[in-house]
Design goal:
Low-confidence stretches: none
Distance between the termini: 40 Å
Radius of gyration: 13 Å
Largest sheet: 7 strands, mixed
Number of helices: 0
Length: 116
């Protein structure tokens, strides 16, 4: 089992920044690729960003490319999402996701609200 706990969400004005963290415990963090997803009210959960086990391969959804940065610190068992130039449409619950083959885990989510 892998336990994932997100933090860092909150209320921010458009144009502002937030940094989300996801702390992992339970198994070897560096064995897992890590993703961030988000889900807005009334919408399906959508992919935001992914980072491989070493941090050397990163991909973003087009909607956040150039504004968000995913990173990880395997020594701290933590993955981050730096979110800059936030827009009201970024408002959602943000989830981190750990995956290795067929083994995957989700955090409980953290709310991000961007006011216009």
């Amino acid at each position: 089992q892998v336990q994932l706990v997100e933090s860092g969400g909150g209320l921010v004005q458009a144009g502002g920044s937030l940094r989300l963290s996801c702390a992992a415990s339970g198994r070897t963090f560096s064995n897992y690729a890590m993703d961030w997803f988000r889900q807005a009210p009334g919408k399906e959960r959508e992919f935001v960003a992914t980072i491989n086990r070493s941090g050397g391969s990163i991909y973003y959804a087009n909607s956040v490319k150039g504004r968000f940065t995913i990173s990880r610190d395997n020594a701290k068992n933590t993955v981050y999402l730096q979110m800059n130039s936030l827009k009201p449409e970024d408002t959602a619950v943000y989830y981190c996701h750990a995956r290795m083959g067929l083994d995957d885990y989700w955090g409980q989510g953290t709310q991000v609200t961007v006011s216009s």
